[in-house]
Design goal:
Immunoglobulin-like, Rossmann fold, alpha+beta, 22 strands, 2 domains, five-stranded antiparallel sheet, 401 residues, single chain
Length: 401
């Protein structure tokens, strides 16, 4: 057995050195500071997510810049105000636009005209209760979308005033949508009470990408001229009966339009429920016309193999996003320092690593689609190591098996 182990050790050692000679990237080269502790690795393709202002952006994805969004808020008070950091405010919603490099402005324009929308790339219509809108204003918003503008129309449930719902319909009818003016409930699938139904029925769309469950907070369903524009639906046991659409999205010539009858989805309190924040972020990205990264790989694991030194087989499940065939591997000695990309364009869902003699290190993997958009990192795997008793140090690296 000892001779077999020595032979295996020699073979793997030779393979590791051979990889080094071929220019393979290595994971365990750690730069140490004067105190002897590991400092942040210096690698050409280092990605540090710990302190960047853009730390929540998907590396490798394309993002818009120098764009402007106009919040048209007709609440008549600070409800849904982008500067309101309280529960009813939209400050978190506005920040998601800031994160996409949008500048955000909030107004209550007396009469909506083409000139008042000039220069804005997206318009948010919300809390439409303090004035009555005209057909001319509705035509203006529709024309704005036809010419490449992006519109989010936010309504509320049917127990609100006729003014609110009529205003929603004035704008929505041009896009083929009106409010059902009901009050949805689901006694089998809800959070806290039956008027906050949990929604898990989604049509495949960029806005529903990655969603598992959202909470619809006291909202109404939608009446749609084109049923194909619905992208999220109540369960079959909800009231009103049937599969009721609650979110609709469509493209109008060069512009985009999305709507829902639940203003609470976007406020600071309920945006944190279930996957509501992911939904809102997806809406923002869709309106921003940003490229989406794929979903990250799942079930990322490290299996330890000891052959006189330590090897780890890293495995993961493929991403659920189509058109993904490559993966990138990241390594860190401390996630607070960020991660270093140590392997690219991995076509398998496994890789073998030789972490060297560091006591602890961390790995994560990402998916890359055919357009080069990279997902967020998978769950992080922590690897604890022990220095071999014979003092031998195998060069750190990785390879396929």
């Amino acid at each position: 057995m000892k001779s077999i182990r020595r032979i295996a050790t020699g073979i793997i050692t030779l393979l590791a050195f051979y990889s080094l000679l071929l220019g393979t990237a290595f994971a365990g080269d750690v730069i140490r500071g004067s105190d002897g502790l590991p400092s942040k690795p210096v690698v050409e393709q280092a990605i540090d997510n710990s302190s960047s202002a853009d730390s929540d952006k998907i590396p490798g994805a394309l993002y818009v810049s120098n764009k402007q969004v106009l919040f048209l808020n007709y609440a008549g008070d600070n409800t849904a105000n982008i500067g309101n950091t309280g529960d009813s405010g939209y400050s978190m919603f506005a920040k998601l636009f800031n994160d996409q490099d949008f500048s955000v402005e909030e107004k209550s324009i007396g009469v909506i005209t083409q000139d008042s929308l000039t220069g804005y790339d997206a318009v948010i219509l919300t809390w439409l209760k303090s004035k009555t809108f005209s057909t001319e204003e509705s035509n203006t918003i529709f024309s704005y979308a036809q010419q490449g503008g992006n519109v989010l129309l936010i309504g509320e449930h049917g127990l609100y005033s006729d003014t609110w719902n009529n205003n929603f319909n004035v704008f929505g009818e041009k896009f083929g949508v009106t409010t059902a003016e009901n009050f949805l409930e689901d006694q089998n699938n809800y959070q806290e009470n039956e008027y906050w139904p949990i929604i898990s029925d989604f049509k495949n769309h960029a806005i529903t990408n990655g969603l598992r469950k959202i909470v619809y907070i006291a909202g109404s369903s939608l009446n749609l001229d084109d049923a194909g524009t619905g992208i999220a639906f109540t369960s079959s046991v909800a009231t009103p009966a049937g599969r009721q659409p609650i979110i609709a999205a469509t493209e109008i010539n060069q512009g985009r339009f999305v709507t829902t009858c639940d203003s609470n989805l976007f406020n600071n309190k309920y945006i944190e429920f279930q996957d509501n924040k992911m939904l809102v972020e997806n809406i923002v990205k869709w309106l921003a016309e940003a490229d989406y990264g794929p979903l990250p790989p799942t079930n990322f694991k490290a299996t330890k193999i000891s052959l006189g030194f330590t090897i780890f087989n890293l495995t993961w499940n493929p991403t659920q996003t189509p058109n993904v065939s490559k993966y990138n591997l990241y390594w860190s000695i401390n996630p607070e320092y960020g991660f270093v990309r140590i392997a690219e364009d991995i076509t398998a869902t496994k890789i073998q690593v030789f972490p060297g003699n560091e006591q602890t290190c961390y790995f994560a993997v990402t998916a890359v689609d055919e357009n080069g958009n990279e997902s967020e990192k998978s769950e992080v795997v922590k690897v604890d190591l022990k220095v071999p008793g014979n003092g031998f140090k195998l060069p750190s690296g990785f390879g396929n098996w």
